[in-house]
Amino acid sequence: MAGWRGRGLCATLLAVLTLLSVTHSVRITNLRVPRTYTLLRDHEPDPLVLDCEVEIGPREQGFVLKWLFNNHSIYQWIPSVKGFAMGFMKSKIDTKIFTMEGSPGVISIKNPDWNMTGEYTCAVQTFESTDKRSARLQIIVPESDFMLEARMSGSRLDVDVMCAVQHVFPQPMLSVMFDTHILDSVLTQLDQDPSGLYSMTVRTRIPRDQLESPTPITCAFILIGTNYTKRRETIFYDKASTIQRKWTTVAVVMSIASLALSS
Ligand SMILES: *[C@@H]1O[C@H](CO)[C@@H](O)[C@H](O)[C@H]1NC(C)=O
Ligand SMILES: *[C@@H]1O[C@H](CO)[C@@H](O)[C@H](O)[C@H]1NC(C)=O
Ligand SMILES: *[C@@H]1O[C@H](CO)[C@@H](O)[C@H](O)[C@H]1NC(C)=O
Predict the structure, then answer these.
(1) Ligand 3 in contact with 38 (CB < 6 A)?
(2) Distance 216 CA to ligand 1 centre (A)
(3) Which of 77, 145, 171, 186 has the fewest CB atoms inside 10 Å of its own CB, making it the most exposed?
(4) CB of 119 shorter than 6 A to ligand 1
């Protein structure tokens, strides 16, 4: 019994202390910045909404709230003029929707772009105190195209494998596997186009005698630093070898059945 009463008393005391400290300062109670934001192709993007919830004591004066992107001011809210955007996101931040409703820390970014990936900081201050919190946001741009091809080389001694992913952000990492082997002797080409998106192609050659027919060949990519990943599989299938075994004389060269699996 005594234990319970003691605990209750403690909790009350804590609440009172918290209340006291709160009424004497400005404090960020919650910073809502999504870890990732995916720009879906063929979709009008949802606005990117960031929120900085603030608790402010009734006697505090000179309140200013700022949002910074990579330490550059993009937004400021003060009681007399409410919110206004500045800097490189000036035309992107919609200040009208939320600030009128008394939530100075909410900002909405229209049509976000890959280069809005970075560190977002909310900074609040009054004449008496300050508070500041930061979080990183990663914008993801999904691929415009992702393809995998496996072809018999001209000499029929090798199988040429090509896998390519196009126009993604951030940088992708591609890997090619057949059966359970990851192929490391691959030729990799990485490009960044003028708009900042990455494309990557890997090519490799597998000796024909290492591949049974049929064999699944898989290509997968991950966007570095994210959980965004996709894979494709193609079945290498050499019709010629099957037919030879059956002693058929029909001349069929080779065919590859493609099977696209999106995760
Ligand atoms: C912003 O400034 C802080 C403190 O000066 C620093 O630790 C941080 O790395 C800076 N962030 C960026 C993205 O430049
Ligand atoms: C981000 O990209 C857009 C469009 O490519 C460009 O207009 C803008 O200036 C870029 N912003 C920064 C900070 O690089
Ligand atoms: C990736 O997924 C794991 C497990 O779901 C999660 O903990 C982590 O935060 C995610 N990482 C990113 C960058 O979203």
Answers:
(1) no
(2) 47
(3) 145
(4) yes
Q: Which atom of ligand 2 has the smallest separation from the CA of 115?
A: 1
Q: What is the pTM of this model?
A: 0.77
Does 36 contact ligand 3 (Cβ within 6 A)?
yes
Q: Give, in degrees to the nearest 5, the angle at Cα 48 between 43 and 50.
A: 165
**Ligand 3, residues 227, 228, 229: which to mutate, most atoms within 8 A of Cβ?**
227
For 36, the token pair is 């990732």
C-alpha–C-alpha distance, residues 195 and 193, integer Å: 5
Distance CA 224, CA 255 (A): 34
Q: What token pair was written down for 167?
A: 């126009």
Cα(115) to ligand 3 centroid in Å equals 21
Question: Block means of pLDDT (10 residues each) for the chain, length 263 residues?
Answer: 49 49 76 94 84 90 95 93 87 71 82 93 95 97 95 87 96 90 83 95 90 88 96 84 42 30 35
Q: Could you tell me if 87 and 116 are in contact, meaning their C-beta atoms sit under 8 angstroms apart?
A: no
Domains and CATH numbers, the chain: 28-140 (2.60.40.10), 145-242 (2.60.40.10)
